[in-house]
Structure formats: C-alpha cells, structure tokens
C-alpha cells in the first residue's frame, strides 16, 4: 500500500473504525495461516445492504472514511489468509467496486485478484450507503492472480422459488478460475431462508455443481445456505452422513470440538457439523447459534480439508467469516 493510504488506515484504526474480524484467535481448532493447507478459501456474507456503516454525522468525508475502513478490514482478511478464492454474499455493487479496486493489479507488494459479479436485485435501498447512483445487490467471486478468471466462463443461474413466499431473487454465480496453478469451477450462492424455498434451491445448486464435477472439473461451492448441516435439505451436497446423496466435502467437517449426538460421536473422522457462522454475538436479530455458511469441495479433487469460523466484529457483518483450506488430491 502507498504510505499515504497506510497513514489513513492507521488514523481510522485509532478512532475505532478499522474492522478486522480475524485478529482474534480462531475458535475451537486452531487453523492459522502458518499451518493451513496451501489452497485457501473464504466465504463471507458481508451484509452490505442491511448493516449500516458507522458514518458519524454523515459528511462526505466521514462516509468515504467509513467505506475505506470497511474495505481495508476485508482486504486485510484476504491477505492474511493468503486467499486463493474469496466468495462474498449480500454484496452491494458499490461495495464490490471498492473491493475490486483495492485488490487490483497495481497493489504494491501484494497479490492482485480477478473478479466476477452477479446481481440478484436491481436495487436494494441499503446499498445507497455504498453508491447512491447504483444500488444493485448480489454476489461476487474474487480469484487470486491477474486474469485468473477464465474469460467467457461466468454464468448466473436464477434459482427456483415458491411463488407465494416473500423472497428476493436468489442466484448461483459461477466461473472457471485458475486455482493454485490448476483450473477449477468456483460457485457462490445465497439460499433463501424460507423453508419451502430452501428445500427447492439447495438441490438445484447441488445439481448445477454436480454437473460441473461430472464434466471433470474441480468444484469449489461456497455460500450462505440458511440451513444447518444435519438438515435433510443438505443431503444433496454432503457425501457422508445419514441420508447423504451428494459428492462434496465441507471444510469444517472434521472439527471434533463440534462433534456431538448419536449421529456425530467423538470417534468419528468427520461429521456434518462445524463452527457457528451465525450467532447473537454478531447480530441482534439472530436468536440462535448455528452453522449456515459453507465451503464445499468436490471430494475427488481435494484432501485434508480444514476450516475455521472467525470471531465476529460488530459493524463488519452480521455473520462470521468462514476460512477454509485443502490440498490437491492429485
């Protein structure tokens, strides 16, 4: 970073605006940048439209400073994890542009990132805090390396909905990316939270991801699925556990601190479980502690999966950031 920008960040930090969710210790198992496997992933619901920025009295300078502080906090997480793929949900278009520019090739001494964006809503009122003129709302994928997204491979698929449910559009955003010297299909989604719609959308996402896997592609599927691991809706994704019919492993499935119950004994090698990514600690409208955010990897391409949900920081998001890592199987 340029010295002037570093000075700005230092000033923002001193007044409590710089939000760095990952500075605290990881929960339960201690997966760190030093001991994690080489291929690194992030999935994060960033609450772009519904979590207000701390803009003081709202002057133009204060708004700009709050935006810069939020973006620099996120970029710090991307860099500290040495992330290969970053999947963001609930992302405003103006927010995406700022992150895109912060991770652009001109960054001195740091990796650059290529990116694709997908809109699920043409306008969300809360996105005005990021760009008053363009309030689009959706998802993004960031891939390490200039030109690392394979040209012409971006797809946006609108997911099925129950007509009577009060929902926003939900999508699956995918693209081929160069991942640690290989090519993988990266996909990102945000599933609706109404039970009837969730039951439609998760199998559809599994079907689309499985189609890529059947074509011989390594698949990384991330997102906020608004469902807990042991629920029957998730059977279409997991390749283990009662009722499972999927072909994917999840990065935090081997954290024994989260193993409990008849279906998940301590002696098991892996379970449909994991650290919470939604909790009252992050959000005053969240009443339960649960895992609803995921990083799924196609089982035949990756091994030794690792995962951690970081402590949350008020103001950055209403979710925990989920980090994952793995090694290539072959």
Describe this structure in words.
Mean pLDDT is about 90; it is low at about 1-30. This protein has four helices and twelve strands; from the N terminus they run αβαβαβββββαβββββ. The two termini are about 35 Å apart. Helix 2 packs across helix 3 (about 95-100). The chain is globular and about 55 Å long. The chain has helices at about 5-15, 60-80, 95-100, 195-215, and strands spanning about 40-45, 85-90, 115-120, 135-145, 155-160, 170-180, 180-190, 220-225, 250, 295-300, 300-310, 320-330. Helices cover about 20% and strands about 25% of the residues. The protein has about 325 residues and is an alpha+beta fold. A six-stranded mixed beta sheet has the order 3-4-2-1-12-11. A six-stranded mixed beta sheet has the order 5-6-7-8-10-9, covered by helices on one side.
Question: Main traits of this protein?
Answer:
alpha+beta; 6-stranded mixed β-sheet; 26% strand; 330 residues; 19% helix; 4 helices; globular
Provide a quick synopsis of the model:
This protein has 330 residues and is an alpha+beta fold.
Percent of sequence in beta strands = 25-35%
Strand order of the largest sheet: 3-4-2-1-12-11
In angstroms, what is the radius of gyration? 19 Å
Low-pLDDT parts are 1-28
Q: In DSSP terms, counting alpha (H) and pi (I) runs of 4 or more, how many helices?
A: 4
The separation of the N and C termini measures: 36 Å
């Amino acid at each position: 970073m340029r010295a002037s920008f570093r000075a700005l960040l230092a000033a923002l930090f001193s007044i409590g605006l710089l939000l760095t969710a990952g500075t605290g210790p990881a929960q339960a198992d201690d997966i760190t940048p030093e001991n994690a496997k080489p291929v690194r992933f992030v999935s994060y619901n960033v609450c772009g439209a519904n979590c207000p920025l701390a803009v003081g009295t709202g002057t133009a300078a204060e708004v700009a400073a709050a935006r810069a502080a939020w973006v620099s906090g996120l970029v710090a997480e991307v860099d500290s994890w040495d992330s290969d793929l970053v999947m963001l949900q609930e992302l405003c278009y103006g927010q995406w542009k700022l992150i895109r520019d912060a991770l652009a090739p001109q960054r001195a001494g740091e990796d650059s990132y290529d990116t694709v964006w997908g809109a699920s809503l043409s306008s969300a009122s809360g996105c005005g805090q990021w760009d008053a003129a363009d309030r689009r709302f959706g998802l993004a994928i960031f891939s390490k390396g200039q030109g690392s997204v394979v040209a012409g491979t971006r797809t946006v698929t609108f997911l099925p909905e129950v007509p009577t449910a009060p929902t926003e559009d939900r999508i699956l955003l995918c693209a081929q990316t160069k991942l640690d010297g290989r090519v993988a299909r990266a996909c990102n989604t945000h599933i609706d939270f109404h039970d009837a719609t969730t039951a439609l959308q998760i199998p559809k996402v599994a079907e689309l991801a499985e189609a890529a896997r059947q074509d011989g592609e390594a698949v990384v599927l991330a997102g906020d699925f608004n469902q807990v691991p042991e629920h029957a809706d998730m059977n279409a994704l997991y390749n283990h556990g009662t009722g499972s019919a999927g072909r994917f492993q999840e990065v935090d499935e081997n954290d024994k601190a989260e193993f409990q119950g008849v279906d998940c004994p301590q002696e098991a090698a892996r379970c449909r479980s994991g650290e919470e990514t939604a909790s009252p600690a992050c959000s005053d409208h969240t009443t339960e502690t649960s895992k609803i955010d995921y990083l799924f990897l196609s089982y035949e391409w990756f091994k030794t999966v690792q995962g951690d949900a970081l402590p949350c920081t008020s103001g950055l998001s209403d979710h925990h950031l989920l980090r994952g890592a793995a090694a290539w199987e072959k």
